[in-house]
Amino acid sequence: MLHEAIGQWGKILGADAVKSDDVTVDRYARTTAPRGTAPAAVLWPQRTEQVQQIVRIAVRFRVPLYPISRGRNWGYGDACAPQDGQVIIDLRRMNRIVELNRELAYAVIEPGVSQQQLHDHLESSGNDLWMDATGAGPDASVVGNTLERGFGHTPCGDHFANTCGMRIVLADASVLDTGFGHVPGAHATYCYPYGIGPGLDGLFCQSNLGIVTRVGVWLNRRPQAMRAVFASTSSDDDLVDLIDRLRELRLAGLLRSAVHVANDLRLLSSRVDAATSRPLSPGDRQRLRKVHGVGAWNVSSAIYGTRTTVAAAGLQVKKTLRSYRVVSLNDAKLRRAKRAGALLGLFGMGANLRALISVVEPAFEMLKGRPVDAFVRDILPHATCPSESGSLDPLDYHTGLIWVSPVAPAQGDHARRLIQLMEPIYNRFGFDLPVTFTLVTERALSAVTNISFNRRDCEQTERAAACYDELMRTLMDAGYPPYRTGPAGFKRIRTDSPFWHAAQRIKHALDPHGIISPGRYLD
Amino acid sequence: MLHEAIGQWGKILGADAVKSDDVTVDRYARTTAPRGTAPAAVLWPQRTEQVQQIVRIAVRFRVPLYPISRGRNWGYGDACAPQDGQVIIDLRRMNRIVELNRELAYAVIEPGVSQQQLHDHLESSGNDLWMDATGAGPDASVVGNTLERGFGHTPCGDHFANTCGMRIVLADASVLDTGFGHVPGAHATYCYPYGIGPGLDGLFCQSNLGIVTRVGVWLNRRPQAMRAVFASTSSDDDLVDLIDRLRELRLAGLLRSAVHVANDLRLLSSRVDAATSRPLSPGDRQRLRKVHGVGAWNVSSAIYGTRTTVAAAGLQVKKTLRSYRVVSLNDAKLRRAKRAGALLGLFGMGANLRALISVVEPAFEMLKGRPVDAFVRDILPHATCPSESGSLDPLDYHTGLIWVSPVAPAQGDHARRLIQLMEPIYNRFGFDLPVTFTLVTERALSAVTNISFNRRDCEQTERAAACYDELMRTLMDAGYPPYRTGPAGFKRIRTDSPFWHAAQRIKHALDPHGIISPGRYLD
Q: What stretch(es) of chain B map to CATH 3.30.43.10?
């Protein structure tokens, strides 16, 4: 049956868009997880109509499909389906920016559009709009991240909340437009997210209910003024107070974007050589903080507005965080600092300043919606494997990576509790706990942590898998489920509840033969 | 079958909670629409478990149910089901405020909780939180409005966007908790809206897929400072420029709440006596604007923050709107104005000031999240029917009312086009066009208009129905569907599209016997 399907897909898509050779299969079977899966074939459609045709053939021959946007879902399953033998639809060739509406500050894009592509397009189209970027790097898909409810750093940082109007191919090959998209000639499809009648958009996040081929993405109007606010604390114990203060700044509307609070290990991860034994001891951490000018907890946030409102809000933020070291930065100040660093370099000085700039600059760029590769570099084991090829794909380095991202109320006590739950487990299995708390709404934080390991080391890989299992069990039991997971987590997050039963009934109603991504969040 | 069901419901709920007598049926059959429907019976459960029992019995005897929150959906169908013979579940006795979390600024409430009840509870619980209220009056349900995607005036003004965590009784009598609500002991249920896996919340807005019995509602942290900004224009033509400027203030984050722009007729509606012939002539409108100190277009908005950020943003807003008359107002200034008005009154003067205060004060209160009755009074035909009883229920006055609320991009040209499309139709049928444009997101506006008529006048009622039909046909054809509708609109908004087919398949999967609200948005 697969053979017939591949033949028919070839007729429709052309031979260069259908592959099932070993090289291709092996390439798409690569994973950062302890265990991956191998696809039966890979398809590269270019248009929504081709996706419809692919689905019709898949239903006829009962071949399961697994759509990916660009396959950059590192640490959350990469490009791998939950089971072997599914046919990957790689949507990277569907990379049109269908519309850019500068007055209304939105773009309509396909899943193949990368962060860099959208950013470049905005820059060359008047440069009056800023996208929101995640740390997944320039090559990652904007749509793919949105459908997993990723988040970034600007006022449009909650990606799903800043999505409006979706186009989806269902398992019956029909094309569903959400919101007002199904009303002929509707003007507000990409301005008003709800349409009329039930809201269906949520169904297509973290699920397997359809294949999204187009999404409206809200953009930031480039502000008259922007000021980054970085803060750091000297003691681990400051976390509780810090989170509570940041929540109040979020609730007051003084900080309108996702605020990130990283621990020392997050910032040090790429700066500690591989020879150092892990987990790092408290003494090592203290020493390394001093060497690299990093705090126990490190805040990255920004204020956007006019010069006067930014100055006024900046004062209030500084006042609220006055017990901590606070540095604020705008374009001019960063330029001056870089000049000074370069100048000092001529005299063999200024290494500290340049080190600080190297930490701060990528965060500063992200606060302006510019995708940077610094955070991808952080997860590469470059100390053992320098990226001379120039590749920034963790899969090229046998990088082992599992994200564990529990959600909690934005309260200091909960943040501390998460550390108390997770750090002993990470350490017991021999891993450090790098963590970034992101206040993704005014009331909630996601604790983004990761197990980093060397996939060429079997023992380490098994240890990582066991560590993940214990973390997930512990966090679910303690009432801190993750905001997102890879295949290893799909079973763990399912409860025997009406929620999942209803979702599964919806799956059966929309995809009775289970053609689209069986096993992905839903069966 | 109905008879048996009523008998069994009586056993479960008690006799005082099940009624099918003529007085009750007639009471719930009352409507502001040209045509209403009569229920077969009315039930008043008090707890979610009772709703489950009601559903079980309804399925057994195949009796359709029609849940309402408090039945205050005036102008959008009131308490009436789309068809005769459905059994109303009036949830007004489910009026518990289940939780108030002051630190995280949310409340968990049942559908019977009225705006006034929630407001009073917040005021007596520390008064550090402000709800968002709609103009539907103190007696309207908070949950009911949210499920219809209503909106208010504060930063939490987009009600569905400020909803987090829902409890729903499905047609199989199971209880579905959305977001993280189905994870035992989850802490972030009311802080993080998405949970993990597909998002189901949207399904239960404007639909018939379940009976919502509990909702988490986000509240505003009471700001250190708040300043209302009112602006008015002298010419009708100013609308285009005004809307474009307001959109930019929204996109810049300087105005963080829903901004309302009302025409003269909206503000004059309750100030013109019934003897005046309708529609008002341009000359009449000019004269009345002068008499009542009302502009062609009238903006109500506010800035929230600290004293310094409010001052800074206030300056920028004033500068942006400098071609118009702008008045800003805070608590102290309003108090002083009221004192001055009262003082002048002692000398028989100050009538103009007092008239202005009477227009501005209700809007000011709403900007602080206080539910007021002024906007309900506006739709009462009190010129012909003074409300001596004290009742504020339009149904007590044979008020005829149909809301027509098309959505457009937040662009001046679209706002003007909506007026050009609607005003001739309103006028041709002998009605005025009162309109409020609300910038409900940064990019979209809802144009809330209404046909007001006297239901005791058959000719006028038929005219209103015909006017509505033509408005809806015209708006749908022109690409401006409404954000919400009553039963008369349910058929008009349905397109023959995969959107509605998918929604209907979901309905069938969750409610195969069509027990819950058949005909409401979906069949």
A: 2-92
| Window 135-194 of A, Cβ < 8 Å to B | 149, 155, 160-161, 164, 170, 174-178, 180-188, 190-194
Per-residue confidence (pLDDT) for residue A387, from 0 to 100: 54
Probe site for chain B from A99, A407, A413, A520 (most B CB atoms < 10 A): A407
Q: In chain B, pLDDT over 70 holds for what percent of residues?
A: 98
Q: What is the 3-state secondary structure (H, E, C) of A444-495?
A: EEEEEEEEEEECCCHHHHHHHHHHHHHHHHHHHHCCCCECCCCHHHHHHHCC
The Cα B381–Cα B401 span in angstroms is 10
Q: What letter would DSSP give residue B111?
A: T
Structure tokens, B320: 């942006």
- Measure CA of the first residue to CA of the last residue in chain A; give whole Å: 22
Please give the ipTM for the structure prediction.
Answer: 0.96
CA distance A168 to chain B (A): 10
- Count CB pairs under 8 A between chains A and B: 314
| Cα–Cα distance for residue pair A80/A64, rounded to 1 Å | 13
Residue ranges, CATH 3.40.462.10, chain B:
225-477
* CA angle (A382, A387, A391) in 5-degree steps: 125
Model confidence at B230: pLDDT above 50? yes
**Touching check for B502 and chain A: CB below 8 Å?**
yes
Any CB–CB contact under 8 A between A504 and chain B? no
Say how far apart CA A449 and CA A407 lie, in whole Å. 11
CB contact under 8 A, A309 and B309: yes
Closest listed residue to residue A218, CA positions, set A167, A300, A155:
A155
Residues of A in Cβ contact (< 8 Å) with B149: 194
Residue B384 has pLDDT above 50, yes or no: no
Measured distance between the N- and C-terminal CA atoms of chain B, rounded to whole angstroms: 22
Which residue type, as a one-letter code, is found at position B96? R
Class of domain B94-221: alpha beta
B505–A510 CB contact, under 8 Å:
yes
B225-477 CATH: 3.40.462.10
Residue A242's H or E segment, with its range, is helix A239-251
Residue A35 CB-density burial (10 A; 0-12 exposed, 13-18 middle, 19+ buried) = exposed
Range(s) for CATH 3.30.465.10 in chain A?
Answer: 94-221
Inter-chain touch B186–A256, beta carbons under 8 Å: no
Q: What parts of chain A have a pLDDT lower than 50?
A: 383-384
What integer pLDDT is reported at residue B274 of this predicted model? 67
Window 306-335 of A, Cβ < 8 Å to B: 306, 308-309, 311-313, 315-316
Distance from CA of B174 to the nearest CA of A (A): 6
Structure tokens at A116: 């860099």
Secondary structure class of A155 (helix, strand, coil): coil
B2-92 placed in CATH 3.30.43.10: yes
